[in-house]
TrEMBL record:
Full protein name: Cystathionine beta-lyase
Catalytic activity reported: L,L-cystathionine + H2O = L-homocysteine + pyruvate + NH4(+)
Family stated for the protein in its record: Belongs to the trans-sulfuration enzymes family.
Record keyword Calcium present: no
Source lineage: Bacteria, Pseudomonadati, Pseudomonadota, Gammaproteobacteria, Alteromonadales
Length: 386
């Protein structure tokens, strides 16, 4: 069972056989009951998150999801967390030590940067940001405990050469963590490029229906040990209901991503010809400066990308956003529906925008008819002409 499309269907279904069903049962439990004292003691000899101990550390439903994520990621193990952000922050916090250094890629997810600049700094951790492998190479030293990247960055859609980053990390024996949510394991085989810890907001494509908060971290048992200890100590666990829904979402992940890709490439190509669009930030386009790197790293393109609109005032921008009917206004992505996220200045994910400057918005292209989405955008663009 080597093909990921087959793994998506068949992994994480061990408990289904016992219940004579296609899907594993949803097991909710606060208390795990053992048949005897020896079994109770044995549960505490096994790995946290992979051995039933107490409801908080996971029921069979949670462990089915973790085993499926590990399998499709070509990894030994997986830790499910309460949401994508807790997955990111648990990795950073687990490797944070006073007097040590963490190197983070510039333009990462806004809440990650906010956590690094406030919480990690208070712990006495030195946090430095880098834009490329040359800057990383000049910053890394024997005090570096973690390198953190995101591909592509969630608003500016920038790509970094992950292979070179991993090579630098390996040469210094420093673990490399990467937020790989955009590509999912279907389009981005993170561990093949030397990434030690791959982080996924399963909230997004993995679940795919905008009704679950869930995070996942995959890697080897060794690389995940510090994170496992941190999550156990701080009570960072995933709920069985979330894992059960995400397991259901996994079954159609490759099919949904194919449609997201088809729609996104079509609409991005259409947007290139629109005079109201000054720039497209989408590495899957041949015109993108990151296109060749995208081809090397990814086997497909996900639905989110950003556009820069022509300069407009606040009222024009508000009319543009409010006139869209098929694009909901929201900060997430990865569900079946199309979304638009304005990068307004007060937002954690925003860049500074002055009056009459070009406006940056992120689009998530959903599963609707692609021409209907273009027509919706076209009607909104007309408001900018007014």
């Amino acid at each position: 069972m080597n093909n990921i499309s087959t793994k998506l269907i068949h992994q994480g279904r061990e408990q289904a056989t016992a219940s004579f069903s296609v899907n594993p049962p949803l097991v909710r439990a606060s208390t795990t009951v053992f048949p005897d004292l020896a079994s109770y003691k044995a549960s505490y000899q096994g790995l946290a998150f992979e051995t039933p101990r107490y409801g908080r550390s996971g029921t069979s439903t949670v462990m089915e999801f973790q085993s499926a994520m590990a399998a499709i990621s070509n990894a030994e193990s997986c830790i499910a967390t309460s949401c994508g952000l807790t997955a990111c922050l648990s990795v950073l916090a687990a490797y944070a030590k006073p007097g040590r250094q963490i190197l983070i890629q510039r333009d990462v997810y806004g809440p990650v940067k906010a956590f690094a600049d406030s919480e990690l700094a208070q712990l006495g951790v030195e946090v430095e940001y880098f834009a490329n492998e040359q800057e990383l190479d000049s910053l890394i030293d024997n005090h570096t405990s973690l390198i953190y990247t995101e591909v592509p960055t969630s608003l500016t859609m920038k790509l970094i050469d992950i292979k070179k980053i991993s090579a630098i990390a390996k040469s210094h024996q420093v673990p490399h963590a990467c937020d790989a949510t955009w590509g999912t394991p279907v389009f981005f085989d993170a561990h093949r490029f030397g990434i030690n810890l791959a982080i996924h907001a399963a909230t997004k494509y993995i679940n795919g229906h905008s009704d679950v908060l869930l995070g996942a971290i995959t890697g080897s048992y060794q690389d995940l040990q510090l994170v496992r200890d941190y999550c156990q100590l701080h009570g960072n666990y995933a709920a069985p209901d979330s894992c059960w829904l995400a397991l259901r979402g996994l079954r159609t992940l490759s099919v949904r991503l194919a449609r997201h890709q088809q729609n996104a490439l079509y609409i991005a190509s259409w947007l290139k010809a629109q005079p109201q669009v000054q720039q497209l930030l989408f590495p899957a386009l041949p015109e993108s400066p990151d296109y060749q790197l995208w081809q090397q790293l990814f086997s497909g393109a996900a639905g989110p990308f950003s556009i820069e609109l022509v300069p407009c005032d606040d009222k024009q921008f508000e009319r543009f956003i409010n006139s869209l009917t098929l694009f909901g206004i929201g900060t997430s992505w990865g569900g079946f529906e199309s979304l638009i996220m304005p990068a307004v200045p007060h937002h954690l994910r925003a860049t500074t925008t002055q009056k009459h400057q070009k406006r940056l918005v992120r689009l998530h292209i959903g599963l609707e008819d692609k021409q209907d989405l273009c027509d919706d955008l076209q009607r909104a663009f007309k408001t900018l002409a007014k």
